[in-house]
Design brief:
The complex is a heterodimer of chains A (276) and B (258). Chain A contains 12 helices and no strands. By secondary structure, chain A is mostly helical. Chain A is globular. The chains are: A mainly alpha (276), B alpha/beta (258). At the A-B interface, helix 7, helix 8 and helix 11 of A face helix 2 of B.
Chain lengths: 276, 258
């Protein structure tokens, strides 16, 4: 691994992976405790429509995709806020339509054949310096926003009704959170792919939740855990010449299964002790 | 007047839920708000909390609108068992009560923490301050939620079906605790079980689209009649027998089964 870091692309891959881990640790914690994983999946896939749109009209990638994803995410957030019992269906529909738009627009774009795989699993080994800078700035901005709104975010996530009684503008905060999520996803897609984003948003927070005593601890620990998964995944990818995004996901997934089994065994042991 | 509701109407999607509600509650009253399910109790509670806006009429809490009075209302929700796995300690739940409607984004400080610990202590839960909320029992969790409601030293304590998750023995203890708190705070407890609360409260408000207020806790036959028009005998006979104050129930007229 150390000798691998002599290559620029490996250094950038590592930096990108660590940055995404931190952002996903913070935002993913909020996604998991607010139970909007499916919404996150919807945004990630619908973002593909924005990618298609940007290519078709020749817009720069980031503004076009972020604009489209923000619009799609606000539609999904409005519906999931107002018609809670049909939220999952509508998110599923926007998810599918967004992707279809993206694929058809790329079909129609003359002379361009996009590699769908690179958006699903990302191209972490080809991250340019400019992307690292954009991601660092956004990451810092998201961290500051979350720190500033932390007490209100905590109250909303734990007990929305009580938060409203105490004057927390829950609706604005919810839409703000979805907006942050959409930007996070778009920034990370081109680097690590939308499937890895979902994995990093959900797996570290899920593993950590049982041990954390506060949302803050959960965010910090999720970021660290995500970083560990990324480093180990990249090592596997380098050592055995595997797709990097998929390797990181497999490391995370294995940890997820181990954590799940350890939990079940612990619970069974505790129940057994109680009975005797 | 701690609660003052005048000529209030409310409807969901055109369907009238509450009609011409008038209610005046004096400070340090202990009110049971009772009524059948779907009779509008929870809706009225949400109007008192400012979560819903009346279609007509006014709600005043301590002379102010519910939103402006937020800090003098303590609220204990019905379901304290949500979000078992949420990473939060008992004291952090209590400190949530200190969010200020005027500055909902402000930080907590050391004095907040002291007050929160004092509120937990009052509920006998100080030893559990740093325990994760999911590891506490249902009854303990309820005490934490009452501490959250009390931490702002409210003038009015609102509780929604607080005994839903407590056994019968626990319920008696719980209502005695409320009686104790009632010495310096007005208490309004929502319940669908009039018989369980009647021996602890000072007054009763029956809500079934309309509201009838009785400034004493005696259960009269007429009250039962308005609340449970047809099914009194089917619904409650067992509780009537096991209730420890059978004399109160005997005032129920010997109504013929329908």
């Amino acid at each position: 691994m150390i000798e691998a870091l002599e290559f620029d692309f490996m250094r950038n891959a590592l930096a990108a992976g660590l940055l995404v881990s931190v952002i996903c640790g913070i935002v993913g914690t909020l996604v998991v405790v607010n139970r909007i994983v499916f919404l996150a999946g919807g945004i990630a896939h619908a973002a593909y429509g924005g990618i298609g749109l940007s290519f078709f009209f020749g817009w720069p990638y980031l503004p076009g995709t972020i604009g489209f994803s923000l619009a799609a995410s606000m539609v999904m957030a409005t519906i999931s806020h107002n018609v809670k019992h049909r939220a999952d269906t509508i998110i599923g529909v926007v998810w599918a339509i967004g992707m279809a738009i993206g694929i058809i627009l790329i079909d129609l774009t003359p002379g361009y054949s996009a590699d769908l795989m690179s958006y699903l699993f990302g191209s972490i080994l080809t991250v340019p310096d400019s992307d690292l800078i954009i991601m660092s700035v956004t990451g810092a901005l998201i961290t500051l926003l979350v720190i500033y709104y932390y007490p209100a975010l905590l109250a909303m996530s734990y007990d929305e009704e009580f938060a409203r009684i105490r004057g927390v503008p829950v609706k604005k905060l919810y839409f703000g959170l979805i907006g942050i999520l959409a930007v996070t996803i778009v920034l990370a897609i081109q680097v690590v792919g939308l499937i890895l984003i979902i994995a990093l948003l959900t797996i570290p927070p899920f593993i950590v939740e049982k041990y954390a005593k506060s949302l803050f601890q959960m965010m910090v620990a999720s970021s660290l855990l995500g970083a560990v998964f990324t480093v180990i995944g990249l090592w596997f990818s380098y050592r055995y010449n595997l797709t990097s995004g998929a390797s990181i996901i497999m490391v995370s997934g294995t940890a997820f299964v181990i954590s799940f089994v350890v939990d079940k065994v612990q619970m069974a042991l505790q129940n057994g002790q109680r009975r005797t | 007047m701690i609660i003052d509701i005048k000529n209030l109407d409310f409807s969901y999607d055109g369907e009238s839920v509450l009609e011409d509600i008038n209610l005046s509650i004096q400070p340090l009253d202990f009110v049971a708000m009772v009524g059948p399910n779907g009779g509008g109790k929870t809706t009225l509670l949400k109007l008192l909390l400012g979560l819903l806006i009346p279609l007509r009429g006014t709600v005043r809490i301590d002379g102010k609108s519910p939103q402006a009075a937020s800090q003098c209302i303590g609220y204990v929700p019905q379901n304290v068992n949500l979000n078992h796995s949420f990473p939060i300690t008992a004291i952090d739940v209590v400190m949530m009560g200190q969010l200020d409607p005027q500055k909902p984004f402000s930080r907590h400080n050391a004095s907040n923490r002291r007050d929160a610990l004092a509120a937990l202590d009052r509920m006998g839960m100080a030893a559990y301050a740093d325990k994760k909320i999911g590891l506490l029992s249902g009854g303990q969790r309820q005490r934490v939620f009452i501490a959250r409601a009390l931490v702002t030293a409210p003038k009015l304590l609102l509780l929604d079906e607080p005994t839903a998750s407590i056994d019968t023995k626990g319920q008696a203890d719980f209502y005695r605790l409320l009686q104790e708190l009632n010495q310096d705070v007005t208490v309004l407890v929502v319940s669908h079980d009039l018989l369980a609360v009647s021996r602890y409260v000072k007054s009763v408000a029956c809500v079934n689209k309309n509201l009838h207020y009785h400034d004493q806790a005696e259960i009269t036959g007429a009250m039962l009649e308005t609340m449970y028009p047809s099914s009194m005998e089917e619904a409650c006979p067992v509780e009537m027998i096991t209730h420890s104050h059978p004399d109160r129930v005997r005032s129920n007229p010997d109504k013929k089964s329908p």
